[in-house]
Each structure stands twice: as C-alpha cells, then as structure tokens.
Amino acid sequence: MKPSDDFQAPGLELFQFPPLWPGAPYWLTKPTLMAGVGALLVCVLLWAAFAHPRLVPRGLQNIAEMGYVFVRDQAARPFLGKDADRWMGLLLSIFLLSWIWNLMGVIPLVQLPVSSFLAYPAVIAFTVYVVKIYVGVRAQGARGYVGNLIPRGLPKLTYVLLIPLELLQNFVTSLFTHMLRLAANMFAGHVILAFFSAVGFWFLFERPTLLGVPLGALGVLMAIVMTGFEMFIQFLQAYLFVLLTAMFIGSSLNPEH
C-alpha cells in the first residue's frame, strides 16, 4: 500500500483557509465571513425579540428573555450586584455571540467554530480588558485601582512576591486566560470531531475492509456522541466566557468583593 493510501488524521489544515475568491484580501476568508454572519445574527435576533416587546412574551421574545434571565442571574448579579442591569446589554451580546460562534462548529455545511480562531475571542477579551481598566480607574482612581489589587494585612515579606504576581495576573495573564480558554476548547473539540468523522468516512467509504468496517462504524458512533458532548461544551464555554467578563468588570467596580 502506498503512503498516500494510508489514513491521514486531520490536523492544522482544518484551520487554514484561502481568501474567498482569487484576488480577495488575504484576511477575507471563511472564518471572517462566519464571524460577521454571527455578529449580524445576534443583532437580528435581539432586534426581532425586543424591538416591539409584549407584556406577556411569546415566541422569540420568550426565548430571548430566558437567555437574558440566565445571563443576569448566573453571571451578572453574582459579580455586579446592583449594577448588573446596566451591563446586561454587553453581557448578553457577548454570551450570544460566543455561543453562536461556537455552535457553527456543528452546523452542517458550516462546520467551523469561529471561536477556535484566537483572533476572534481575542477582540472581545481585549475590549473587556480595556473596559475593566477604564471602569476601575473611573470608580476608584488610578492609584486606588492599582492599590486595591493588592490584599492587605499580610506579612511584609510576602509582598515582595505577591505584588508582582498580582499585577501580572490583573494586567497580563487575565487577558490571555480569557481568550485562550475559549479558543483552546473550541480548537480541541473541532479536531476531535473531525478525527472521528474522518475515521468513519475512511473505513466505511474510502477503504472498506472486513476489519475496517467495524472501526468505521465505531468512528461514526463516536462522532455522533462527541457532537452531542461538544454542543454542551460550546454552551458551557460561552457561559464561562461571559462569566469571566462579569467577574473582571465587577472586580473593578466593587474591589471589596
């Protein structure tokens, strides 16, 4: 058997896309298009749900209000308290956008989780980072904001190590943790789904053999199971993404918490 006839597991080529047409800008690729579609979809859904709200919600408004209540009660209020409602527009939009970007990984014909490309969650995470610092300085003053990052009442020698670590965590690693958590999980999930799908297709259709067909059937079964599991992870990661957003903003507004 020639090497070209061997099964090749999918790899980084899953995330490499040329421009949409010859001569198009290098950045105008399928992920860019899907990111824009996702943002437009969020705007359309929220407009359709809340442009003419009813006292007794029905249809899309009812579904949207369920999402609103979920984000408000599970992310905003625990960290923002009385300020939760002021930030719900931002938080709900981030939750829906990241969730839709994630779900694109299991939508037929699209099958591309936009969030697995680091640049897209990075834009949101950096925006949250700027907002966090801005509201912290505005609420506490620059000196108070930086000063309140450091716990008080500890032995003096502790601060030699603690101060650099706290500043590093708040001004550097929090940004990267925010965006990498989402991107890494979506990247790994997409590769896993692609692997099991490729196993099923290869051993059932490309190179069916007596021993290979059961392996291909197992690959298809695992692809189905992992798709269901991945949809749960997609929701969970969108929730954690907006939870961290609320936590960062809340810590700047209410340092005592």
UniProtKB/TrEMBL annotation:
Transmembrane segments: 32-51, 87-111, 117-137, 157-176, 182-204, 211-229, 235-253
Statement: the UniProt record of this protein carries the keyword Ion transport: yes
Xref: Pfam families: ATP-synt_A
Alphabetical keyword list: ATP synthesis, Cell membrane, CF(0), Hydrogen ion transport, Ion transport, Membrane, Transmembrane, Transmembrane helix, Transport
Major localisation: membrane
Record-linked SUPFAM superfamilies: F1F0 ATP synthase subunit A
InterPro entries linked to this entry: ATP_synth_F0_asu, ATP_synth_F0_asu_bact/mt, F0_ATP_A_sf
One GO CC term, this protein: plasma membrane
Its membrane topology: Multi-pass membrane protein
Alphabetized HAMAP family for the sequence: ATP_synth_a_bact
Name of the protein: ATP synthase subunit a
Designated gene of the protein: atpB_1
